[in-house]
Amino acid sequence: MSMDLNGQRVVITGITGGIGRASAERLLQAGADVIVSARSQDKLDAALAELSGKASGYVLDLLDMDSIAGFFEKVGKFDHLVTPAATSMFAPIADMDFDAARAIIESKQWGQMMTVHHAIKQMSKTGSITLFSGTVTQKPLPGSSMFAAVGAATEASARVWGLELAPLRVNTIVPGIIETPVWSGLMGAEAGAEALNGFASVLPVGRVGTADDIAKAVVFLIDNGFVDGESLVVDGGHRLI
């Protein structure tokens, strides 16, 4: 993939997760100036130390409206927004932890909405916003009702915002099963690896996805100015089985 994003400023809200980091690396390789965030200065400094190119960043708490507003004031004018969110939970409705469920809504839905609300004050009208959902919005997976609900809300909101904010483009990436630290965080290292191996054995492409698979989609949606209001599924054929 050879794309020229020289002169483009891209904000990625979150750099400590696999997809955020891989996206930053791809965008830097394409020549973009990349501004990233983390919830603490230590995590931000560690992430920036591993990136090469025009990378900078600021501390950001996606659950705090004042933190979000202050972040974008520091960023100033920019072109593209990418909002990966690593928070997740799995629980059947009969055993739902409603405090954890509320936290998912606050981080993945309210957090994204507040981010977009403040970001557009600084964004180029010829830029783009890339949001994130998940294929559980289209292929049910037991225990994923909260993740599916907030993902569906994101996809629907993106289409509305694509009209409201035109000509600024708004798209959603819908990842399938991706090998990121989320799995070990949810299940523990051994159980997470076992689950990923199980998915790999049944997916049509014969493997689970990587963070870089999703990062390539991020770069595509930023680069292609004729894609708008799209929910781009990157799932290795998961919906086919």
Automatic annotation (TrEMBL):
<dbReference type="GO" id="GO:0016491">
    <property type="term" value="F:oxidoreductase activity"/>
</dbReference>
<dbReference type="Pfam" id="PF13561">
    <property type="entry name" value="adh_short_C2"/>
</dbReference>
<protein>
    <submittedName>
        <fullName>NAD(P)-dependent dehydrogenase, short-chain alcohol dehydrogenase family</fullName>
    </submittedName>
</protein>
<dbReference type="InterPro" id="IPR036291">
    <property type="entry name" value="NAD(P)-bd_dom_sf"/>
</dbReference>
<dbReference type="InterPro" id="IPR002347">
    <property type="entry name" value="SDR_fam"/>
</dbReference>
<comment type="similarity">
    <text>Belongs to the short-chain dehydrogenases/reductases (SDR) family.</text>
</comment>
<dbReference type="InterPro" id="IPR051122">
    <property type="entry name" value="SDR_DHRS6-like"/>
</dbReference>
<keyword id="KW-0560">Oxidoreductase</keyword>
